[in-house]
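[Automated response] Your request has been received and processed.

Submitted sequence:
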Amino acid sequence: MNEPLTQRRALARLLPGLVVAAALLCSGMAAAHGVAEDDGAFIETAQGVQLLPYLYLGAKHMVTGYDHLLFLFGVIFFLYRMKDVGLYVTLFAVGHSSTLLFGVLSGTHVNPYLVDAIIGLSVVSKALDNKGAFKTVLGVQPNTKAAVLIFGLFHGFGLATKLQDFTLSKDGLVPNMLAFNVGVEIGQLLALAAILIVMGFWRRTSVFTRQAFAANVILMTAGFVLAGYQLAGYFQSPIGST
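Generated structure:
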């Protein structure tokens, strides 16, 4: 029997199970997403300038922020040149850095359920873009650079809402938030390095082209699960139900 055909059939049999597994995993992660209890206790009691702790908290939150990492994974999925990777990651960083700092320092509040739902949909959008769905269905290819920047703004508000759950001391707030933002960028670079290493090995295999479609289906499913979970939370919350 033809080997590629056999592999496609095997992939087709595995794909539903992988999609279900991704959905279950993401629903569990969505329920647990936020600031750890010990970290929250520190934020509530910290006074004055605490650069290193906030640097660590920013890096930790980004490395464990699966929604941000899923989007980043989708963004670089078909980027092969480091120049392009650097450009798109910079656009994403500019977007989320701007709204993270603006949201916390200005006291601007957005509904965390709605902004996290949009973040989930950003993952869906990138997966669809990777599969060429927009051009195929709508006949139009969105500007991917503008999309990454705009979605980066929403990701930044998502980060801000996690900090706004706590009473932040005004003493040292600006330098602490700058340190947190630098930590987020460090965490992003660490995560990006790990993703690029894995992608580098994967791309050199003979099955990458065939598995790329399945991977983006799973990525899209994960985004829908994240968005659906957050929308359910919104409609069940006192604000959403009024």
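Summary generated for your ticket: The chain has one domain: 19-235. Confidence is low (pLDDT under 50) at residues 10-24.
If you did not submit this request, please reply to this message.
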